[in-house]
Write a structure and sequence with these properties.
By secondary structure, the chain is α+β, with helices and mostly antiparallel strands. Helices cover 44% and strands 10% of the residues. The chain has 18 helices and 10 strands. A 4-stranded antiparallel β-sheet has the order 1-2-7-4, sandwiched between helices. A two-stranded parallel ribbon has the order 3-10. A two-stranded antiparallel sheet has the order 5-6. Strand 8 and strand 9 form a beta hairpin.
Length: 386
């Protein structure tokens, strides 16, 4: 069978198993990406979550010596939640970004790619493949861009003509040589909506991201969130997709093509207070199947505290005091103290002062001091109103 005939068969089969887009490219070095990654590294813009060296991330044959081609796939996910639960005073909710609304996409895409690999092997027994979904060394976006899946937007997401940027990406290296597809032309033009909407200025320029300032990255960290960002994440628990929401290519885009990717409302928009004391077992049962659980419960619980601070949720003060005084993790105790100060009730300030008498961790004590600093501003505001 010729490679051209096999390519047609692969495309047809991919559609039959629910792959929404597929593209083909060479296994050549990603030269432009290599230069960009070196600049990112020098500027300190990397997140630290990247896998492998720059060479491994840009030279496919370092990962699979016999690689001749790379197949890129895209699967669309929903952008709107039917009948989302409403948060209200006394019953506030957080939210996961859209990319973590359904079953973990790593699982979904790997399953599709494994089916595709098996099909290729049936058609061409000498075929060899290597599958990657997000956690591999190669850049999913760079592969998808070169394979014609979409163009790389100023928000650093791959934007497809059909599904906007609401797509998951994965790829497969193979020793079969296929005719490569043509990349799409850049479609952003003079638009800067994503850059203008980024609350932290993480989008330095079109297509360049300082991950250290990106809220999507910061929601996944496990340490104290830097002060400058605490009031910016709102009720985000995992991820942050404003730069996608404002994109004109995503206007009215909402595809519900895969049942396993449908949002579970109580998981995608969970109540905040119960999350503060959720057990490891219950966390795994409730959230273990979504992508946003990969860092464990600690970042989500820390973010839940910050969301309660954002809402100034006075009804949650007793629960937050419990975290400040009983949680064994300094980050949680300290963030709880800061949150209590931000909410600013007399009960909250009194609890911080009392807890300071027994606290020994310097980082937590520092956060308690910051929490009490809100008291002075509250007193000044009261005097101004008199």
């Amino acid at each position: 069978m010729s490679e051209a005939s096999l390519k047609k068969k692969i495309i047809a089969y991919s559609k039959s198993i629910g792959i929404d887009k597929i593209g083909f490219t060479t296994a050549d070095v990603f030269t432009a990406l290599k230069n960009r990654l070196k600049e990112q590294q020098e500027l300190g813009y990397q997140s630290g979550f990247e896998k492998g060296s720059i060479e491994e991330r840009t030279e496919p044959k370092r990962l699979f010596t016999e690689a001749q081609s790379i197949l890129s796939i895209a699967i669309a996910y929903p952008s709107r939640m039917p009948n989302p639960p409403k948060g209200e005073k006394g019953n506030r909710r957080g939210i996961f970004c859209r990319a973590s609304w359904g079953t973990d996409y790593h699982v979904v895409l790997r399953d599709k790619l494994e089916q595709l690999a098996a099909f290729i092997k049936e058609q061409k027994p000498e075929a060899e493949t290597k599958i990657m979904v997000d956690t591999g060394e190669l850049s999913d976006r760079a592969v998808a861009e070169r394979a014609g899946i979409g163009f790389s937007g100023k928000n650093t997401a791959i934007i497809t003509p059909e599904f906007g940027s609401y797509v998951y990406l994965g790829e497969m290296l193979t020793n079969i040589s296929f005719e490569p597809d043509q990349p799409l032309e850049d479609g952003c033009g003079d638009c800067t909506k994503c850059l203008d909407a980024c609350p932290t200025g993480a989008l330095i320029e079109g297509g360049r991201l300082n991950a250290q300032k990106c809220l999507a990255f910061l929601t996944q960290t496990k340490d104290f969130l830097p002060d400058d960002y605490r009031s910016k994440i709102g009720n985000a628990l995992y991820g942050y997709d404003t730069c996608q929401v404002v994109c004109p290519y995503n206007k009215k885009v909402d595809f519900h093509l895969h049942p396993e990717l449908e949002p579970e409302p109580e998981v995608a928009k969970p109540k905040l207070v119960p999350l503060l004391t959720i057990s490891n077992r219950q966390f795994k049962v409730t959230f273990g199947h979504v992508a946003g659980s990969w860092r464990g419960k600690k970042p989500l619980q820390r973010n839940a505290l910050l969301a309660l601070a954002h809402y100034k949720e006075t009804t949650a003060v007793p629960d937050i005091i419990h975290v400040m005084t009983e949680d064994v993790r300094p980050v949680m105790r300290g963030t709880a103290a800061w949150t209590l100060g931000k909410i600013g009730t007399d009960e909250a300030f009194a609890a911080i002062k009392k807890a300071m008498e027994n606290e020994t961790d310097e980082d937590v004590l520092f956060e308690m001091d910051k929490g009490l600093q809100f008291e002075a501003s509250h007193l000044q505001a009261d005097k101004a109103r008199e």
